[in-house]
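Bug report (template v2)

What were you trying to do?
Predict the complex of my protein with protoporphyrin IX containing FE.

What happened?
Run completed; filing so the output is reviewed.

Input:
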Amino acid sequence: MLNTVFVALAILFTLQVFKALHLRSRLPPGPSGLPILGNLLQLPTSRTWLTFDKWSKQYGPIFYLNIAGQNTIVLGTHKAAADLLDRRANIYSDRPDFVVLNLLTGGMHWAWTHADDLWKRQRRGAHEALSAQTAKEYFAYQETESIIMVDQLLTDPKNFLAHFQRVSTSLSLSIIYGWAPVLDSDHPTIQQIDHFNRHVLVSAVPGSFWVEFEYFKWMKYLPKWMCSWRQYAEKRYSRDSVMLEGLSANVQKQIDAGEETTSVAGKLLQNTGSLFEAAWNSTSIYAAGSETTAAQLAWFIQAMILYPEAQRLAQEELDRVVGPYRLPNFDDHEHLPFIRATVKEILRWRAAAPLGVPHRLNQDDHYEGYFLPKDTICFVNIWSLNHDSELYGHDAEHFNPGRFLDADGKLKSSIEDTRDEGHFSYGFGKRICVGRHVANNSLFIHIAYLLWAFNIVAEVDSNGKPELPDPLQCIEGLTIRPVPFHCNITPRSKDVAEVITQAKVERIGEGS
Ligand code: HEM
């Protein structure tokens, strides 16, 4: 009897091994891993995109990882990403299950939810409030915030990173909730929203909690008293949701009082009919947009220090088109192709999210002879695509806005499948960044102001040697920003302060 059980178990085991080997032979190639843990221990703890870039060169445009039981693919070329995430968007637009993140947000932060009906409704509403056309309604906010940013840099240039954080947060609050500019980043509401945001972003980083791993998903069903992660997330949700919903409730009061609101929240409340959904749509937009712009501005300053020729050419254009006696504005947009190319190049050179946000395949699929099982998680290595020398030439590692311009200095037509952006930093398919028009406009006006007003150069050490930052060193999370660095930001002429002060008085009023 024992013998029969033993033989049956041995046959079952052998069949399972054959099944696993057969499945593995149909999956894309990739580094071989350990039993059970798969490739988990091979994942780098920092700059994952560089290791993935190396693996793409070794294994090809699509490679496979088993992350503790989770089927995962990484796409390393523009063709593979566009073929799957754009051309098969119907089945590649889902998101993985973020257990803790969904508890933190009550499942309402739609940038992270499954591609379900709620996501469709929220995305449609966001698209209307942030489309290329509607984004023009926010120009005034963006110009005002740029004035405040350069004014603060005049008096306190060393804290440039803090000013970028402030401008990004304050601008988000103006556009989304119609707030007046917030000059102090210690404002309690800002602190609270940013706190919420940080918790969300941490919980989205793969491996932050055991329950996120495939083999440990059963932990979801443990009673609450056994799960510190559940207690933590539910407690935060009950606290944060009151504050976050309150922000939109205030906008609703203004609408009820007959005060016109052109803010994103105002539009969503008028179009959605549900305060709860509109409030969480606004929160999701705020959370997705506020970190990224500040990070891109910090990378921009590094680029200006490391590539002074690009700075010189941009300033030449500003001097020619705008001149020294007024600040740039959105009417100059058409006439400042080098500044627009600089925006594209900063997003290409250092995308705020080098691995984007993961998508999930929601049915079995085949590609290039490989089998891709349902529920596979798909990463695009945006870094690899943006640094592809076949698309961008031998100097793809370098910052060079000129690559986007033709011989007459006009913007070239864009690279295929980049939706006129010229880079891949806004993601793919039905999940492409819905805030990209607002982001492009903010970067355009902030960069135009910064280069119109200031020379940005490296600090010099006691031996007279410039202290150049290392552009591969970064602080990592889901988004990356440079490790804090020093630089000198000085007005380009004696007229700069006067022009800024005058603009500030006109825009914000006396005594501002
Ligand atoms: C320079 C700045 C920005 C960069 C580099 C960026 C990048 C991205 C990326 C890579 C994604 C994921 C796309 C995908 O899954 O394939 C995304 C999604 C998203 N972004 Fe942005 N973003 C930026 C600014 C903004 C701004 C300013 C807003 C809001 C005003 C915003 C709102 C969103 C939202 C709501 C999503 C989720 C879309 C969805 O899941 O359907 N982003 N962004």
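What did the reviewer find?
The pocket of protoporphyrin IX containing FE is lined by residues 111, 123, 126, 130, 284-285, 288-289, 292-293, 296, 351-353, 356-357, 359, 425-428, 431-435, 438-439 (CB under 6 Å). The chain has one domain: 20-508.
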